[in-house]
Every structure is written in C-alpha cells, then in structure tokens.
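Q&A log
Question type: sequence-to-structure
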Amino acid sequence: MHFIQANQDEGSRLAEIRAIAMKPGLEAVGRYDERRVRNRFLDTFMPADTWKIVLNHILVGFFAYRDNHDHLYLDHLYIHPDFQNQKIGRAVIAHLSRAAAEKMIPLRLGALRNSPANHFYLSNGFKKIGEGEFDIFYELIV
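Response status: OK
Response body:
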C-alpha cells in the first residue's frame, strides 16, 4: 500500500469515492444529496493536504489532514466500499498516529452521526470529545 499526494486534477475522482463511501451514512440520516456530497468536498479540496491510497496500483481511497500545530486534524478518510474491511483504514490511522506522536500532539476528527465510521474510530482508540448537530468529534492521544 502506498500513500501518494493528490494533484489538482484528481478532485472529481476523489469526490466520487467520497460520494460512494458516504452514501449509506448520509441516507441513514436523510441527508444524501447527489451533488452536495461531491461539491462539499470539491469546494475545500486542497491537494497539498490530500493523499491517495493506492493498493496494487489501484486507487482504493484517500485521506486529507491538516497540521494545526496543536493537533493533526483528519478532515477526510474514505475507502471505496469494494476495499473496506481490509485494514486499509487502520493503516492510515497508524500512519497519522505516528506523525502525531512525532510532534507530540493529538489526532482529531469528526464523523457523521450514525455512520459506521464511529465504531471504526472508537475501535482504533479514539475518544469522543464532543458532538455537533450532524457530527461526533473524536481525539486520539498518542
């Protein structure tokens, strides 16, 4: 598995992975909108912060994070459903945990309420630190 920095031309392709991965969770809360799910990502897409996840020369997902000096913030982590449950997400979390540990800062993120991602983050050692209207916020202290 390799993490390769995204480039500006790949936004639409990554937005499609996001839409496919998020559809079940957004439908569960009655908020799936075909265009909005893609545009919400594209409106804030920063290639410098975004990394493609490539397995056997296949794009299987991506993640984006920011270094906010006092914490790393995982803004996106999406794995195409065909490649979920293969420990790819765990590998990303391990990678980011090492980066946070080197800086001696926590790793934080938000996950859509009622999304299966919540169980994933809790099972990877994250602790809930807050809630918003649609999201639950987590922190991992490494």
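Response note: The longest strand covers residues 58-67.
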